[in-house]
Amino acid sequence: MNKYSHRADIVLPILPVGLVWLMLWAPAALGQASSSQPASQPAAQDKAAADEIMGQDCRSCHTCDQPTHDQLCLNTCSRELNPRDPKMYSLKGPELVLLDELSDRYLPVPFDHKGHSEMAAMTSGCNLCHHYTPEGWEHPACRTCHEISPAREDLHKPSLKGAYHRQCLNCHREWSHETKCSLCHLPRTGTENGSTPSAIPSKDDIIGSMHPPIPEPELLTYQSKYMINPSAQQTQITFRHKEHIDRFGFKCVECHREENCSRCHEPQEARTNTPKEHHQPCSSCHQTEPLANDTEQSACRHCHQPIGEVTQPFDHAATGWSLNRFHQKLACRACHNSVPFTAPVEKPTCTVCHGNWSPETFNHGVTGQTLNEQHQEIDCADCHTDRRFDQPPVCTECHEEEEIKFPDKRPGEFSPPETLVPKVDSTTP
Amino acid sequence: MSCSRRDVLRSAGVGLVTLTISGHSALASGPAADPGKVNGVLVDITKCIGCRRCEFACQESAGFEVPPIESFEDKSVMTEPRRPSPGSYTIINQYSNPRDPALPVYAKFNCLHCNDPACMSACLVHAFTKQADGAVIYDPWKCMGCRYCMVACPFQIPTYDYENPLTPQVRKCNLCAHRVPNELPVPACVKICPADVMTYGPRHELIQLAHDNIARYPDRYVDQVYGEHEVGGTSWLYIAGQPFDQIGFLNLPPEAPPRLTETIQHGVFKKFVPPLAWFGLLGAIMHLARPATAKESTPGNQP
Questions:
Q1: How far apart, in whole angstroms, are the C-alpha atoms of residue A310 and residue A326?
Q2: Is A241 part of any domain?
Q3: A229 domain residue, yes or no
Q4: Is the pLDDT of residue B159 over 90?
């Protein structure tokens, strides 16, 4: 009996305190619950607005949906977000890099950086490997972000070993189908305990597995299903590959952009390009769409020809301006400054290249016109006014126009330079 | 006489209560795990190059006699589907890749360390334990060799030392439970993998990572994390570029097998009611079917 009354002594004073607390707490808790509902609405709007302002999803930089100042949860090495130009391509990088950070089992891996950067220029540029370079930084080392330990803190990023291997395997596995370690890792030489590295390889011999030189084809022919006339089943397009490089001065990358190793190493895969995609590499210089006054056949016949017919190399004479044997050797870009070359040369004057011509250094006889003694002593500009060597010479500076008229009278012996200029015409440079 | 009957009833009552309590506790002891501490491994099948280094590291870590590492470069063994064996707790099988026939897909198989392991449920002698870190480990000193675990496993993983007649063991991956954390912070296969196909970490983080990757590269992966729900969830999780049934993974229901078997088994003895009802029914039948002569001869009927 005594026991129970003692318990009531404790419970009874607690009761009013508990009731008061309940009265105070309950409205606050309910208020919180009711206010949390509308609060989430603006948050979603904020996120959508922020996405719109930034032009991308928050998730491309942040790992959480609602970053705060205290918890930015930044996605440190985002692949999607690289401030540098993805097509950036520089020859300033090192030629050979020795990857030796994880060489406990193998020797350092020689990496032909220059070769790979040239290849990468055909696809994604430096970004392919240097996928995170903050503005104003040199490319950070891989280990800056990728942890060496396999038990890593940030599970989203591969470990250093994984990052290296994945980077290489992406392409190498695709085209060589070979994943032997010895393909890249030099085996350790020497005795069992002595793991002395063999000589550091030269850049010309990357463990004997450098890409063999790719022969440039003289010309390539492509078959097309486009028909010139109903009787022809197919047409053929000739592409003079060597000419485009040697003469027109194209760099490989200008056409072979957006390509990778599998272009050559997976040749069995049929290409399924649309006609427009087929024309695209040629369109920058060649007319690939019919003009208004062209019939379709005449326009297409420039490139699409019957099977067996090969187009001839470009002849500058077809433009009405034949070149002598010296100028034939020049790359088009020596005179034509911009592509396409159909645009007229801005200053068609010899002094662009031959600015150093002077009476002492120049043998005028090569033009077929050997100058007599009097004319050898005068300055070039006396006859070729304004040093316009492509124009007929002016004699009126010294002679009366009625007396001497070029080319009826010449300043010395003249023999038409048949051997020099194949097609003589008045405008031959 | 009446006093002794009361004693019998009293002891029966105590026994009933004891049984009920013990039965109840047996039911309550389901898969014990704190989801925050369960570790797992996420396998990105699209990254695997089939170098079989994990097979080598596994055998080495388990203390087997391992052939030289170069012998693992033989890819011809992978063309026929293999299963884990007593000498190799993990194996890689090769499957055709519909996206690129020249680049096969390689899938690694080993114990998936279920959240609710069927092998553990089937074991009569509690030779299997689910550790707090997620590993399902085996104690050969408890095992009596019944091999129920091999029948119970939905993935057909446990193998048996048939070639060792004296001290045979059930063999399966134990998630390198023997490892020293400082020397080998992750399982041996995870550590050696050159392409980081496997990621070791807390299971809930790995599930998040898997879904993140699928959302980030929807072209590369099928939208499924194998092991997230299969048989109640597993510690090993997989993401792949093609449907899982094309690369040797079974289509399994989300319920763990023990939930069905244990429900039946424990239900039979639930609160001791079904046995009492059954034996009561049998007793009643016996009582009613008793021959009349026997009834007359009972001492209670005598005057």
A1: 26
A2: yes
A3: yes
A4: yes
